[in-house]
Please model this.
Amino acid sequence: MNLQIAALLAQDGLTNGAIYALLALALVLVFAVTRVVFVPQGEFVAFGALSLAALQNGAVPKTIWLLLAMAVIATILELVALARRRAAARAYMLAVAGWLVAPALVAALLWFAAPLKLALGWQVCLAILSVTAIGPLLYRIAIQPVAQGSVLVLLIVAVAVHFVLGGMGLLFFGAEGSRTPAFTDAMYQLGGINVSGQSLYVYGVSALAIGGLYWAFSQTLYGKALMATAFNRVGARLVGISPNFAGALTLTVAAALGAFSGVLIGPITTVYYDSGFLVGLKGFVGAIIGGLVSYPLAAAGALLIGLIESYASFWASQYKEVIVFTLIIPVLLWRSLKTRHHEEDQ
Amino acid sequence: MTTQLAVDNVSIRYGKVEAVHRISLAVGMGQIVTVIGPNGAGKTTLLSAIMGLLPFHGEIRFEGQSLANASIEDRVENGLCLVPERRELFAEMSVADNLQLGAFCRYRRRDRTIRASLDDVYALFPRLAERREQLAGTLSGGERQMLALGRALMSKPRLLMLDEPSLGLAPRIVKEIFHTIAALQATGVSILLVEQNARVALQVADTGYVLETGELVLSGPSAELAHNPRVAQSYLGQSA
Ligand SMILES: Nc1ncnc2c1ncn2[C@@H]1O[C@H](COP(=O)(O)OP(=O)(O)O)[C@@H](O)[C@H]1O
Ligand SMILES: [Mg+2]
Model:
């Protein structure tokens, strides 16, 4: 291997690593706020990429039917809960507006905008929006009813959701994969090394997204409210932050990050309905390196996974997944030796 | 005087063990009411149930509305607020962020006077203003109590429940905190104060209740309670 190849591999590795980093951050966030090890994160990735591919063909992403069905279920659940608590009329109106009307508007927007074959940038926004809208509904339907359960119960629910969404993906997008066009074909020469504009794009927007997250969680009150819930659930409730509100908001962010990753990964590899899982799993390994609690470590871990994967594919391409996932064992050992056990579920 | 909080025949259990047995008490608008009693009497349990942290049997009404179906967040939204025994601060966040989060409900309903409340809290506790960028977890015990009180005040409560505000604090700080509690009453906030430190509690309160092993054994105007021989002997350390 010469320097040229090494640099090329590093470039590839960092491109994938940046995408894994976004997923790792989403996983750490979801775990911190809801205690759910969010296995279905990868489905958002596949949905994001495949929705964009559908929009490219002028087709309506069929996930809008899922969106509508979930909206109806969530609305019924919410209305029943409100009736049990004998809530005021205003609460019913807000519930219908938030859980039914808002998702329906998103679906309608996709329905009318898809045949227009808008510019790539708009299609990206639509694809991300349609997947993001699924996030809070998923929380309301699948997680909120068991939110008080143990981490194990929550994990089982997450695995079930992963299978259901995977099946939906097959139903909506078919078994064929899709590849979306690159955002740019530009090539740059940096010190004798070829750098693709697409890679720079991925680095740039990932960094922007991470910076945006950092800003949101350190500067905005809703961001701080999520952090507060993660740090001290009881304290958060005592200032009026409902764990359900925090959970729904967190899954919205996670869905947006997943779809965003999907849009970024679409031009790099062919994405199938079930491709998300493996991508998400690599983000998960990154998150595990951060102990599911540290955001910077999770992001750094994910970048490392991207690099290792890239070099592994050069030396032993059949074994690259094995190498990446075997890596988790020493990391877990090291972490379990380093961290003292604290009680789960306070 | 109109009753703001009415606790009626309330029992609270942990599994099979009943920690609070059929107690009734009332807090009038603008009053300071104290519940005193030894460790393990059920004071924290009572406040937890009023706040919605624990289920209860019986009836609790706040400003005429039953709290049976209200969530913790509903209670905060409606002006009920608890400063718990364990404070439950956001240790990893700054003093300023803790205070800002105290006004979360008001922020959601687009209250424009949050800034003014923050200035009020800083005026009440200048020490918090000096430490506004410091992490809550690094504060001293007294400062943590001030922050917990300040965070509660940021929600603009109409009834504030305090669980042993004097716990673990030096006498000088206790004096300062109780000074603040008396000052809060002057601003129209009602206070339900739970204390082991009966002396200071009865000094500041209008009405008092004595809770022993989950049951109310005495009640009355706090001046009278302070002179009750049983209270004097058990809680004020005087021989009858
Ligand atoms: N989480 C719990 N589970 C079981 N019993 C509890 C729990 N918390 C408190 N108790 C019991 O309930 C009784 C009242 O406790 P508590 O309300 O904390 O008293 P106080 O605040 O007056 O010191 C005690 O006997 C205590 O052991
Ligand atoms: Mg107590």
Summary: The longest helix of chain A spans residues 3-34. The beta strands of chain A are 187-190, 193-196. Residues 26-275 of chain A form one domain.
